């Protein structure tokens, strides 16, 4: 018997019987019946459905326009009528960031990781510039931001959605 055909026969026996390959086994592979073929086809369909997705589908992408509305609503709910107080701002930033993060999680975008950055400052009539740089996949990752301003304070929020491969 040819060594290659012998190894192939052993491998086929192990695959069809769903067992472990046993060295030295020389019996012929069993004939696959209709029920077994059906089971194999069902397993192939399940394997195709649970295939690893490298990108989110169109409906599951991080959409900045929708996220910006979510951020704006959280800011309005929390900061309307608030006056700047340096002691309170530390807790406000944490509360706002947690609220926005929880609302992002409620959107149930699979495999997205979120980073929420909140800055609160006092309105003194001075200009403020903020910027960030990110290295990411422009097809799947994105950012949404919004600004809240009243007479005594300003708040800038940036929410980053990064797709986890």
Question: What report would you give on this structure?
Answer:
The structure is a single chain. With 165 residues, this protein is α+β, with helices and mostly antiparallel strands. The chain has 2 domains: 3-49, no CATH class; 58-163, Ribosomal protein S3 C-terminal domain. It has 4 helices and 3 strands. It has helices at 3-17, 34-49, 64-79, 86-106; strands at 112-122, 142-149, 153-163. A 3-stranded antiparallel beta sheet has the order 1-3-2, with helices on one face. It starts with a helix and ends with a strand. The model is unreliable at 10-29 (pLDDT under 50).
Keywords:
4 helices, 2 domains, alpha+beta, Ribosomal protein S3 C-terminal domain, 165 residues, 3-stranded antiparallel β-sheet
Quick description:
This protein is 41% helix and 18% strand. It folds into 2 domains: 3-49, no CATH class; 58-163, Tctex-1 (Ribosomal protein S3 C-terminal domain), CATH 3.30.1140.40. α3 runs antiparallel to α4 (86-106).
- Number of beta strands: 3
Structural class: alpha+beta
Helix/strand order: HHHHEEE
Under CATH, the homologous superfamily of the largest domain reads: Tctex-1
So how many helices? 4
**What share of the residues lie within helices?**
40-55%
- pLDDT below 50 for ≥5 consecutive residues: which ranges? 10-29
What best-fitting shape do the alpha-carbon axes yield? elongated
> Whole-number average pLDDT?
81
CATH topology of the largest domain: Ribosomal protein S3 C-terminal domain
CATH architecture of the largest domain: 2-Layer Sandwich
% residues in beta strands? 15-25%
Number of domains: 2
Describe the main β-sheet briefly.
3 strands, antiparallel
Beginning-to-end CA distance, first to last residue: 47 Å
Rg over alpha carbons? 29 Å
CATH class wording of the largest domain: Alpha Beta
Strand order of the largest sheet: 1-3-2
């Amino acid at each position: 018997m040819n060594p290659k055909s012998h190894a192939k026969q052993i491998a086929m026996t192990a695959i069809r019987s769903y067992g472990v390959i046993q060295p030295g086994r020389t019996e012929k592979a069993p004939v696959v019946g209709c029920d077994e073929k059906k089971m194999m086809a069902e397993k192939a369909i399940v394997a195709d459905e649970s295939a690893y997705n490298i990108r989110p589908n169109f409906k599951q992408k991080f959409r900045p326009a929708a996220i910006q509305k979510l951020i704006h609503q959280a800011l309005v709910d929390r900061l309307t009528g608030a006056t700047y107080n340096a002691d309170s701002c530390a807790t406000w930033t944490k509360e706002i960031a947690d609220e926005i993060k929880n609302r992002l999680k409620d959107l149930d975008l699979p495999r997205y990781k979120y980073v929420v950055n909140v800055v609160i400052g006092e309105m003194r009539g001075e200009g403020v510039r903020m910027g960030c740089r990110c290295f990411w996949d422009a097809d799947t990752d994105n950012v949404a931001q919004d600004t809240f301003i009243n007479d005594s304070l300003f708040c800038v929020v940036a929410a980053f959605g990064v797709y986890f491969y």
